[in-house]
Design brief:
This protein has 463 residues and is an alpha/beta fold. It has 16 helices and 18 strands. The strands form 4 sheets. It has a 7-stranded parallel β-sheet with strand order 11-12-13-10-9-14-15, with helices on both faces. Strands 1-6-5-4-7-8 form a 6-stranded parallel β-sheet, sandwiched between helices. Strands 2-3-18 form a 3-stranded antiparallel β-sheet, with no helix packed on it. Helix 3 crosses helix 7 and helix 10 crosses helix 11. The chain starts with a helix and ends in a 6-residue tail after the last strand. The structure holds nicotinamide-adenine-dinucleotide.
């Protein structure tokens, strides 16, 4: 039984009223008070989805794309209003990227072997109902992207989202179910509970009808999922270093790195979190960052105040600072700056708390290295073995190759901003679930399938 229609309606009406966008949708879909009921509804829906043709699935995905484009601004504003993190223009871009570049059914490809003894196909089939845990940093982006991929592969999905982003999540879930219904598909292709908690998460993870769990978030949730006894896709934390050597185009490197670092106030897990630069070029790089790219050079005293503000005495992040702009962060330590300041920088050792911690805010420390090899060593140390993302600005392909092998990350962007890895100003697909820990890398529909071998003996080979 779908519950609390009125709550979903209230959320939608509140947003529509705030944005003066006219009439709110009159239905709500996919929201349950009880996790077991949510799983049951997704299971019932999956029995219909598995019988849909690929063409029908693709039609539904194309309506999800359209609705994502049409609702990009609403979702962006909801995300910022509800979580207090990120910024609206960049979140709009992220939703447009989801609409355009998250793959659909074309990602599901069959392998074929044919010869004297017949024809064998290896087909990618659905798991059934997938459990998904999503972060507050990219809430609706992850829900939409996961739903499109999982549904393209013939699954339905139960979300246990971050409670701090539940309204935004519900809006996105309602939207994908409306897309399915509009095309004659079932309701509840994606579902959630109105109050997600650790308990609802545990029920979902242990539920016998959920064979696969995809977790997007910090180290805690990935470890929890990988300890569940189920197959798990773990998209965990990063701390991506951007290495700059003396062969780089420093002007462009400064622009790319600051653009990447400040995208959505540094919320994406792939975004540049610190720079490691060879000593001889630091002055010039800083010059471009400060004089051309809107970076504020923090004094030692300001760095100490920032560290005491953004990191709690127990070493955790102060959630009131995550995803805030440089201007807001500086105002928290009593420094007022003009609107063109978009990033805070300083030179410090790799152990500096503002450098070694994954902050998810536009604070970009620069670690000096005596030469390229020293820079590689420091960058590998700073990535903390997450094997998630790293970046390099260098014209020397031997060095790029050496760095790529040493750091061994799911993503390595060369001579560009980090978001090129999401297909924004770079080639290939978009995803907001990067499974570095379990090895799928940038997830897409095929990541949510299981392989099936289909064998015809002695026939259908027509070579
Ligand atoms: P978070 O780890 O606090 O929460 C993520 C999700 O996990 C939430 O839904 C939360 O409720 C849940 N959760 C947390 N601990 C759990 C546990 N022990 N058991 C069950 N569920 C648990 O992260 P966040 O602040 O929402 O997001 C930021 C973090 O996520 C960063 O570390 C970032 O790098 C990472 N992230 C990774 C990717 C990726 O694709 N690899 C994408 C986005 C964010």
């Amino acid at each position: 039984m779908a519950v609390n229609e009125s709550m979903v309606q209230d959320i939608v009406k509140e947003v529509m009223a705030k944005m003066q966008l006219g009439a709110a949708p009159t239905t709500s879909h996919g929201v349950f008070s009880d996790m077991n009921e949510a799983v049951a509804a997704a299971k019932k829906s999956q029995q219909i989805v598995r019988r849909l043709s690929m063409d029908q699935r693709e039609q539904i995905i194309s309506v999800i794309r359209r609705k994502t484009r049409e609702n990009a601004e609403i979702l962006a504003r909801m995300g910022v209003d509800e979580t207090g993190m990120g910024n609206v223009p960049h979140k709009i871009l992220k939703h447009q990227l989801v609409a355009e570049k998250v793959p659909g059914t074309e990602d599901i490809r069959t392998e074929a072997y044919s010869g004297d003894r017949g024809l064998t196909l290896v087909e990618l089939g659905p798991f059934g109902v997938i459990g998904a845990i999503t972060p507050c940093t990219n809430p609706s982006e992850t829900v939409l992207c996961n739903t499109m991929g999982m549904f393209a592969a013939g699954n339905t999905v139960v979300f246990n989202p971050h409670p701090a982003a539940i309204k935004t999540t519900i809006y996105a879930i309602n939207m994908v179910n409306e897309a399915s219904l509009e095309c004659g598909g079932p309701d509840n292709i994606a579902v959630t509970v109105e109050k997600p908690t650790m308990e609802t998460s545990a029920i979902m993870m242990k539920h016998p009808d959920i064979p696969l769990i995809a977790a997007t978030g910090g180290p805690g949730v990935v470890t929890a999922v990988l300890s569940s006894g189920k197959r798990g896709i773990g998209a965990g934390a990063g701390n991506p270093p951007a290495l700059v050597d003396e062969t780089a185009d420093l002007h462009k490197a400064a622009e790319d790195i600051v653009n990447g670092c400040t995208f959505d106030n540094n919320l994406p897990c792939i975004a540049e979190k610190e720079i490691v630069a060879v000593e001889s070029i630091i002055d010039e790089l800083l010059h471009y960052m400060v004089n051309e790219q809107g970076c504020y050079l923090a004094s030692k005293e300001e760095q100490d105040k920032l560290a005491a503000t953004v990191i709690t005495p127990k070493g955790a992040l102060n959630r009131k600072c995550v995803g805030r702009s440089a201007k807001v962060l500086l105002s928290m330590i009593g420094v007022e700056v003009p609107d063109n300041i978009r990033c805070i920088t300083f030179v410090g050792e790799k152990e500096h708390p503002l450098i070694t911690t994954e902050l998810m805010m536009p604070i970009l420390g620069i670690v000096p290295a005596k030469d390229f090899d020293d820079a590689v060593e420091k960058a590998v140390w700073l990535e903390h073995g997450n094997r998630h993302s790293a970046h390099i600005h260098s014209k020397n392909v031997d060095r790029i190759t050496k760095y790529a092998k040493a750091i061994d990350t799911a993503i390595l962007v060369k001579n560009g901003p980090s978001y090129a890895a999401l297909g924004f100003g770079g080639e290939s697909i978009c995803t907001f679930t990067i499974a570095s820990r379990t090895g799928e890398g940038l997830t897409s529909a095929k990541s949510f399938t299981k392989k099936r071998r289909c064998v015809m003996t002695d026939n259908l080979c027509i070579r």
